[in-house]
Amino acid sequence: MKRDKRRLVSYGIPALLVTALLVITGCGGGSSSSDAGATGGGDSAQGETIEIAFISPLANTFTSAIYDGAKAGAEGKNVKITHFDPGQDPQKEFNMIQDILAQGKFKSIVLLPLDAVSIAPVVEDAIAQGVEIVTVNNPLGPRQDTIDTQITDQAASVMDASQLQRGIWMGEMAVDACEGIDPCEVGYIAGFARISGEKALIDGFKQGISTAPNVKLASYQDGGEYTPEPSRKVIQNMLQANSGIDVIAGSGDQMIRGAELAVADAGLEGKVKLIGLGGSEIGVAGVLSGKWYGTVVTLPFDIGREALEIALQAIEDQTVNEVGVNVTEETGQEPKLTADNAAAFKPQWTG
Q: What is the DSSP string of 43-95?
């Protein structure tokens, strides 16, 4: 998992950029919270606090769990994590990284990329200035089928699977759920379809169902926003427009919770099978209750904790470079949860 660095790192940035902070601080969004780990570790050579920027939306419990994992990784160390929330706006995330670099105090940025390609140039600028970059959950670069880093000298990419692979697993579960139904009409709900990770998920889902001639993607809808109530409305409309839907899948357990409510509203409980993404408390409870067919596992707390630990290692001893970390493989966790195995799984977020 570790390789020697191919570069020497200098943490200083031009004084002009520091001066620019007086003008642009707060532009493009500011930090939503700051959390300092307990003292005792950190940069032992100088005894200074290591400052790390963490960029991720906190609008739902999944991304909050990643942040909680990062804070856990900082415990007992002389580390301060400052959180920056870009919402779901890739341009705002780009601007935030520029602002962070202008401050000149952060030795690492841990971020959840909202767009795989558009923020790459500013990430490259950060690396050129000696800032260690660790990405979480989503790939950064043109390929969506890999967890490996795609930016030269990026410290690491930490995921539990590529977004494409997650989509494939959901598609495979849909095929299983459609067994004995011909034709089997499937609906899919996205949170924000414009995000690159969403595009990879639906590509993977289509790949997963492509092996089954009886399975048809009858409806693909945007607007779930990774929360139950918007998803409930989207699925209500989906069911009204497509009365033959047999299975509904979606790119987040929160949205399948909304689908569960919409299915109940329509009096279709037991007739429409539900497949989530996340392995959350809500998802596992849905599977165990029989209201959901299954959910694909994610491990957000482990992702955040490992990302922070790798960032610190990269800062302190320069031994991590261009590493792809798959926490699902590391833990040996079966990625597809159904009634057969869900009871033994411990969720890492609420849903």
A: BTTTTBPEEEEEE---SSHHHHHHHHHHHHHHTTSSEEEEEE--TT-HHHHHH
